[in-house]
Amino acid sequence: MAEPYCFETGGERYALDRRLIEGVIEPEEIVTLPLSPDVLLGVAYWRGAFLPAVRTPALLGLPDRGAPAVLLMLRHEGRGVALAADAVGGGGGPVEPPPGDGPGPARGPVKLGGADTEQVATWLDARLLLDAAEQALAGKAGHPGQS
User: Fold this and answer.
1) Which CATH number fits domain 4-137: 2.40.50.140, 2.40.50.180, 3.40.190.290, 3.20.20.70?
2) Where do the H-state alpha helices sit in 8-143?
3) DSSP for 100-136?
4) The whole model's pTM is what?
5) C-alpha triplet 35, 79, 113: angle, nearest 5°
6) From edge to edge, which strands make up the β-sheet containing 21-25?
7) Nearest-angstrom CA–CA distance, 128 and 86
8) CB atoms closer than 10 angstroms to residue 120
9) Residue 24: is it exposed, middle or buried by C-beta count within 10 angstroms (0-12/13-18/19+)?
10) In the chain, at which residue ranges do the beta strands (DSSP E only) sit?
11) What pLDDT, on a 0 to 100 scale, did the predictor assign at position 105?
């Protein structure tokens, strides 16, 4: 079981394991880098390290809707990234993350907030999301699921 942390990006609602989100910062706190890949917004200094700030819609194959409202500081297995998000919040109690079977980080829908709600989000696998970010920053892939 995992506690969901919900956010919106590219017009879609997603959830990650809350334990992996170390914090939320304002986008003004990133430093842009000239001649960087389109997926990279810049870098953010977080808890003694520089993390790439990425356009989450680009990683997920979604349309970019402009400047993000916040950046989610995600860390997992010694790796980290700042994910652009349009909004954050919600989640409810523990959920069982779906296993998923595709190559991308989207694992499938999860129902949020218990049995009496209709809120649903797509669960993201943090390891696969970090893999996708690293590949995109290295210029090796378009978005997860594309070859």
Assistant:
1) 2.40.50.180
2) 56-60, 126-137
3) --SSSSEEEEEE-SSTT---EEEEE-HHHHHHHHHHH
4) 0.85
5) 110
6) 21-25, 70-76, 79-85, 49-54, 40-46, 30-31
7) 21
8) 13
9) middle
10) 4-9, 12-17, 21-25, 30-31, 40-46, 49-54, 70-76, 79-85, 87-88, 106-111, 120-124
11) 87
Please give the chain's pLDDT, 147 residues, in tens. 888 999 999 999 999 999 999 999 998 889 999 988 889 999 999 998 899 999 999 999 999 888 899 999 999 999 999 999 999 987 777 888 888 766 778 888 888 765 556 788 999 999 999 999 999 999 865 444 443
Residue 82 structure tokens: 């700042």
Q: What are the residue ranges spanned by the domains of the chain?
A: 4-137
